[in-house]
C-alpha cells in the first residue's frame, strides 16, 4: 500500500488543520506557515472538523444538562 500523492499545498493544509486539532495557537501557525496575518492562515488553511465541533459543543453541554 503506497502513500497518496500530495502537493505542497495539501501538506500545508493538512499541517494547519492537524495543528489546530492538536491545540496549536493560530499565531504559531501563521508564523510557521509564513503568512502575513492570522486571518490569511485561518481563511486559507484551516477547517473546523466535525470532531472539533463536537468538542466545542461538549464544553457547554453541562449548562443544558443542569436545566433539566
Description:
- The chain has 68 residues and is mostly helical.
- It has one domain (8-67).
- It is built from four helices and no strands.
- The longest helix has 18 residues, at 50-67.
- The model has no long low-confidence stretch (mean pLDDT 84).
Please outline what is shown here:
The chain is an all-alpha fold and 68 residues long. The protein has helices spanning 8-21, 26-33, 38-45, 50-67.
Shape: flat
Number of strands: 0
The total of helices stands at 4
| Straight-line distance between termini | 51 Å
Uncertain residue segments: none
Tally the structural domains: 1
Q: Output the radius of gyration.
A: 16 Å
SS content category = mainly alpha
| Chain-averaged pLDDT | 84
Which bin fits the share of residues in helices? over 70%
Largest sheet: none
Keyword list:
4 helices; 68 residues; 71% helix; flat
Task: Note the topology.
Layout: H1 8-21, H2 26-33, H3 38-45, H4 50-67
